Amino acid sequence: MEQKINATGKRPPYGIIAILMIGAFITFLNNTLLNIALPSIMKDMEVEPSTVQWLATGFMLVNGILIPATAFLIQKYSVRRLFLAAMLLFTAGTVLAGTAEIFPVLLGGRMLQASGSAIMMPLLMNVMLVSFPVEKRGAAMGVFGLILMFAPAIGPTLSGWIIEHYDWRMLFHFITPIAIVVLLIGFFRLKDKKEKLAMRLDLFSLLLSSIGFGGILYGFSSAGDKGWDSPYVYGSIAIGVISLVIFIIKQSRQERPMLNFKVYRYPMFALSSAIAMVVNMALFSGMILLPIYVQTLRGISPMDAGLLLLPGAIIMAIMSPITGRLFDKFGGRILAMTGLTITVVTTYAFSKLTLDTTYTHLIILYSVRMLGMSMVMMPVSTNGLNQLPARYYPHGTAMNNTLNQVAGAIGTALLVTVMSTRTTTHGEELAAEALQKATSGQPTAAAMAEMKAQIGMQAMLEGINDAFLVATFIAGVALILSFFIKRATPSPDPEGAPQTNEPKATTKLAEN
């Protein structure tokens, strides 16, 4: 049966979208699956924290490098070819990582996984955009948001359970058969017709893009470990910024750019992109700081730490389709303002943590925060993309996903650096206070050790609270920006009919 995909018309290809969503779910799930397993991997492979963190940073780095090229890939190749390539890369990386005996092989497998994931996200979003008319797009993107946010959210819970019962390699082994099944379903069920386009990839632009986004990501990702004064950090960021400026200038002068920066001529897209970046920076405060607090300071097990995040994930799963329908009815402004107000209030509440904060309080606070987040991400992004002409969808989705990766890296580096520096400062202040109070006699070695441990824990707690406070201000910036959101409708294409190498508003897909 043949079904026509366009932004105005026929019945969407639900079977094809379902296949893409299943593939996207397992690739997105993989983003956070290793977070709780990192201590086990450190012990098993005898590597330092600064080394093992590259399993997360490297994944983000590959995504940041490859996503800009997806605008070209979506225009050049069919959905079938891109989906199969993405799943093949992801499956190969999963098998390699699951059988790795040394860390470089594990890291290589992880980066192969990332290369598949980088293709999958923009591909699915582009298919969703051209498959549904504007008035129904919110509900459709709400379901997409469920996949995008729910999969990474349940990762820590699932990972915690597996780590407590099995070896960390099981994290890869249980995904492998699922990935193979999805790959086979896609091979037999996905059939789409696409005109052959005479397009060539500008390799110099790809190199500039890779150095630009990769350099910025590497620099900010290394800052938490090496410090902001390291030449590796500021050197990488400087090289990345210079390369990115040259890349943007080159793209603006090309008739058929690899990544079209003209999308920022549309004010609602530019605004939504800015809000999404700021929200992503704030989002990482909960994802990075809360696990450190519950496991390092409170001694909560990996399983219970994962379970703490589960109710928030369930709320996001329930709210995502509901939020999509509310977006269709009321637009993005009310949802974004409401969601960001909740996010600001709950993030501020996290800046008041103590060593006695109850587990129940943490669950409720995190769940309410996720409720706020669920009302922001997809409505804001969809509203911005709605203003673009159809031929700009691949460029808009690639731009959003790339900048979200960069914002996530910047947010992580900033908040980890704030936590580390403030922990050191608070430690020195608390030690000085303790020495002033210790006026009666010479304390025993045991008493000194206990006092040092207590000061260390209290200093880290204050450092985490300070980082959450910074995240509160970041979320506040997004809240202010949300006041300027207006309901967007598709703009006319200023260049008229698409060129032969630009994506058309209609692409024919068929299912067996």
From TrEMBL:
Region feature (Disordered): 490-512
Superkingdom assignment: Bacteria
Iron in keyword set: no
Transmembrane spans: 12-34, 54-75, 82-106, 112-132, 139-158, 170-189, 201-220, 232-249, 269-293, 305-322, 334-351, 363-381, 467-485
Keyword Electron transport: no
Localization of this protein: Cell membrane
CDD domains: MFS_LmrB_MDR_like
GO CC, any one term: plasma membrane
Keyword annotations of the record: Cell membrane, Membrane, Transmembrane, Transmembrane helix, Transport
Any one GO molecular-function label of the UniProt entry: transmembrane transporter activity
Main localization category: membrane
Every Major facilitator superfamily (MFS) profile domain range: 16-490
Membrane topology: Multi-pass membrane protein
PANTHER family for this protein: MAJOR FACILITATOR SUPERFAMILY MULTIDRUG TRANSPORTER MFSC (PTHR42718)
Family assignment from sequence similarity: Belongs to the major facilitator superfamily. EmrB family.
This protein's name: MFS transporter
